[in-house]
Amino acid sequence: MKAVLQRVKNARVEVDGNIVGECGNGLMILLGVAKEDTEEDARLLAEKIVKHRIFRDENGKMNLSVKDIDGEILVVSQFTLLAEYRHGNRPDFFASAAPDEANRLYEYFVELVQMHVKHVGTGIFGADMDVTLTNWGPVTIVMDSQVLKNKGK
Question: How many domains in the chain?
Answer without folding.
Answer: 1
